[in-house]
Amino acid sequence: MISKILSKVRGNRVGYQFGRKILSTPFIVNSAAYNSIYDKKIDKTIRKLSEKYPLGVDIGVTNLCNAECIMCPHSKLKKWEQWI
């Protein structure tokens, strides 16, 4: 019942603006309930993103390259002993 009313209010531009004014008052924003709901929303978003994207990227850097790009100084760099 309440969700139907809220969806109608949110679907209306005036209702949306009214809701934003009410929810942005210091009384609401500084409440423990608001902070709890906000934290849960943030955690849910982070979980969704962490399932979709990797948490980190490893990049290996080397100067062992047989390409002869004109902008690359690899021919002037110290050569590492090649492991076979």
Mind explaining what this structure looks like?
With 84 residues, the protein is mostly helical. The protein contains 4 helices and no strands. It has a domain at 2-52. Helix 1 crosses helix 2. The model has no long low-confidence stretch (mean pLDDT 77).
* Arithmetic mean pLDDT: 77
Q: What is the makeup of the main sheet?
A: none
Quaternary arrangement of the chains shown?
Answer: single chain
Radius of gyration: 27 Å
Structural class: mainly alpha
**Uncertain spans:** none
Question: Globular, elongated, flat, extended or rod-shaped: what is the shape?
Answer: elongated
SSE sequence, one letter per element: HHHH
Helix content: 40-55%
Number of helical segments with 4 or more residues: 4
- Please count the beta strands (DSSP E, at least 2 residues each): 0
Measured by DSSP, the beta-strand proportion falls in under 5%
Distance between the termini: 71 Å
